[in-house]
Amino acid sequence: MYTGLLHSHKLLVLLFLLHYVAKLVLLLMNRHEQLAKYSKLTKVPEMILSFGFLATGIGMLIKGAALSTLLIVKIVCVLASIPLAIIGFKKGNKILAFVAVFLIVMSYGLAEMNKKAKTGPVVDTSTITDPIVAGKLIYTNTCVNCHGADGKLGLSGSKDLSITQLTIDEQKTAIRNGKNAMPGYKDLSDEQIEDLIVYIATFKQ
Ligand code: HEC
């Protein structure tokens, strides 16, 4: 459900973005007649698009998207861009229209950055010999936000780790490469991933 929302949301946002970039280009090039025509033609699709992307966004929040500062900044940018876009394009004000489109592009970029930020450097566990201790440390630092201390939290559509049906190899691939809303952790060493697997297995009791 969450993953479906996420994919639809991404697609709708991308379409919305392209649509507004097209409008902005027409405005900046002083093609007022074409802009008026294009806006008239796309009025209903635009309404459906904006409703769709707000609805899927809100749906993801309700379904428990993991809130982060970047996500909040993103939501503020999107909410601020709406009145700016309406006024900017209505009055043909290039600066307002530009700022509005810029805010939408920025929130799109922030969403991508958000994913990268979460995959940043992981803790150093090279001095820890017990895999459960090492696994727990990495887990608490990197995974707990979405999966929760007992693996059951399920934020951002994450799977309950205490009942995972995946084989060890599949789990490793999920951790290394990510899956849907889960970022990949390429910086983890093979040993750290082994530690995580051992630690995750302790949830299954
Ligand atoms: C941003 C939130 C987020 C973070 C952080 C995160 N995960 Fe996930 N995880 C997910 C989501 C979402 C899924 C479900 C992906 C899917 O199948 O759609 C998932 C799935 C998994 C799975 C597969 C479970 C299954 O049954 O399919 C494993 C294993 C896993 N995560 C381990 C980890 C580990 C270990 C870490 C830390 C290194 C981690 N996750 C960090 C969101 C997250």
Ligands present: heme C
How many DSSP H or I helices?
9
Structural class based on helices, strands and sheet pairing: mainly alpha
Tally of structural domains: 2
Main beta sheet, described? none
What's the SSE blueprint?
Elements: H1 2-28, H2 32-41, H3 43-62, H4 69-91, H5 94-118, H6 131-142, H7 144-147, H8 168-177, H9 190-201
Helix pairs in contact: 1-3, 1-5, 4-5, 6-9
Heme C binds at residues 3, 66, 118, 142-143, 145-147, 156-159, 161, 164-166, 171, 174-175, 179-183, 185, 196.
Can you walk through the features of this model?
This protein is mainly α and 205 residues long. The chain has 2 domains: 2-118; 131-201, Cytochrome c-like domain (Cytochrome Bc1 Complex, Chain D, domain 2). 70% of the residues lie in helices and 0% in strands. It is built from 9 helices and no strands. Helix 1 runs antiparallel to helix 3 (43-62), helix 1 runs antiparallel to helix 5 (94-118) and helix 4 (69-91) runs antiparallel to helix 5. The longest helix has 27 residues, at 2-28. The mean pLDDT is 87. It binds heme C. Heme C (HEC) binds next to helix 7 and helix 8.
